[in-house]
Every structure is written in structure tokens, then in C-alpha cells.
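tool_call: predict_structure(chain=1)
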Amino acid sequence: MPVSIFNIYLTEQETLSFYSARKNRIKVAAENGQTLSLPWEVFKPYVTKNGISGRFAVYFNSDGKFMRLQQL
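tool_result:
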């Protein structure tokens, strides 16, 4: 299963822009140089009062479709 690793840091204010529906995708740069555009919904379980921060792995199926996001 293909995987991409990335770090993300979104402040509380940046995170609020997703809740207000001004944005619906988050773009991140993976460690392998790949740019990923992920739906906001997959990050919701990782939101804290300070925003979103951490190191994540995103898993794809053999067709390149999103399967799951995991905080490392």
C-alpha cells in the first residue's frame, strides 16, 4: 500500500477557515516531494483547540485513491 509522510501545522485561525467552509481541501508537501491535496474531513479527528499539528501518514490503494490518514 503506497504511503506518503508529511508534517502539518495549522493555527487555530487557519483551522477555523475550514469550518466556515471557505476552504475544503488541505495541500501539503510530502517528504518525497509530492504535493498532496486532501479533503478537510480527514483531518477533523486531529483538530485541537490550537489547530492541527503533527506528523502524518496518508495511505493510498494501488489505484492511488485515498484510504486513510494516520497521525504518527
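agent: The helical segments are 12-19. Proceeding to next step.
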